[in-house]
UniProtKB/TrEMBL annotation:
InterPro entries: A-crystallin/Hsp20_dom, HSP20-like_chaperone, Small_HSP. Pfam families: HSP20. Keywords: Stress response. It comes from Amylocarpus encephaloides. Belongs to the small heat shock protein (HSP20) family. Residues 39-160 form the SHSP domain. Residues 20-39 are annotated as: Disordered. The keyword Ribonucleoprotein does not apply. CDD domains: ACD_sHsps-like. Residues 20-33 have a biased composition (Polar residues). Gene3D superfamilies: 2.60.40.790. This is HSP20-like chaperone.
Length: 160
């Protein structure tokens, strides 16, 4: 599925989120950008855990009720940024949803960016071509393999 940002109906939300993300990423040196929750109850920021194993970064994103066709994962190699975006719907038809008595679950449009490697002290590179994602039991699991380097490449510089 194409990323949420390519869906015409989602453009106003995505543009708002992109503006927030740019502001949030400004002077700070965070490894991730949270898209701030605003007063619109149809926008949310899913909680995320990032694990750094020997061979990969593994992200767990809580998306209860999400369908895989409504979630997009994109890797921007130039920026070293993983973008997670999509929408979570409340199940039921309009008549049923009109009778909602209490709302605690987060539903609506979401977008989140994560810089990899996550810390500036990290030196691992990632293999963007081998990233995998699966949605299982309400958790989006994204595996970003680290590049294995057994040696360091040294480039000779000619002196003019």
């Amino acid at each position: 599925m194409a990323a949420l940002s390519s869906q015409p109906w989602a453009q106003p939300w995505v543009q708002t989120f992109n503006n927030y993300a740019q502001q949030a990423a400004g002077p700070q040196q965070s490894s991730e950008t949270l898209v701030p929750e605003d007063k619109d109850e149809n926008n949310f920021v899913p909680p995320i855990d990032i694990f750094s194993t020997e061979k990969a970064y593994v992200l767990h994103v809580a998306l209860p009720g999400a369908k895989k066709e409504d979630v997009g994962v994109n890797w921007d190699e130039d920026k070293g940024v993983l973008n997670l975006a999509g929408v979570v719907y409340r199940q039921g038809d309009e008549d049923f949803l009109r009778h909602l008595a209490k709302s605690e679950r987060k539903v609506g449009v979401f977008e989140r960016t994560v810089k990899l490697p996550p810390g500036e002290e990290e030196k691992d590179e990632v293999d963007g071509d081998m990233i995998t994602a699966k949605l299982e039991d309400g958790i989006l699991v994204v595996t970003v393999p680290k590049v294995e380097k057994e040696w360091t490449e040294v480039k000779r510089v000619d002196i003019e």
